[in-house]
UniProtKB/TrEMBL annotation:
Name by which UniProt lists this protein: Helix-turn-helix domain-containing protein
Organism, as annotated: Clostridium simiarum
Domain HTH cro/C1-type, chain residue ranges per copy: 7-61
InterPro entries for this protein: Cro/C1-type_HTH, DUF5680
Keywords: DNA-binding
Amino acid sequence: MSFKEQLQTLRKAKGLSQEKLAEIMGISRQAVAKWEVGQSYPDIARLISISDFFNVSIDKLVNDYEENCHLYIESDKVNDLNGEVIDFLCKAKKSTYAGNGQKIKSSRPNSHDFEYVEGDFKYIDTYLGGEQFSGEEGLWKNHIPLWSMNYAGRVLDEGFSGRFLKEVLSLVSKDNPYRGPIIYEKGQYKYHCIVNGDFHWFQGYEEIYFNNNKVYECFFHGGVIK
């Protein structure tokens, strides 16, 4: 079921008109109408609001995700340099936090820091906190900054599994070199990641459900440094 069909089904199940849903979401009725006929698509913030309101995961909202992804979310268009950078970035991510890599000396009081170096490239990931956290990943070539990503997230329920999150993050790929794959399921856990933009400039959101209960969420954004 596509997003437009899913939204109509959820709205009608609650007995809401387009006008009433628009009022609840703080948007115009025309915006809802365009979503439901497939003329436009909500941004990440709106998707999260819709997900929370109807108490469904984002991946259920965008179940026909491949179609929606190609229609509304820009695909990565990388040149040779970015291809080399992305290759290194994926390897660095898999070798540090996600791969239980060795921490380096804290760069700030009580920060958690990881570093990965290969040839002229350097990757550093540093974050603060635990159950509620924020941090930044950065890439350098010959000590010149190339790319960075800021992130902030929180654990919402005791059903959260740090092991599952690391497993997801270890699956980072060249097609989606930010956090984890678009959708990943294992046992009672389900992970979903949505990204708007491309490697040069992007924003995204990831969530984890356990037994259909949201137990974790994280926002991230970043892009190429010039």
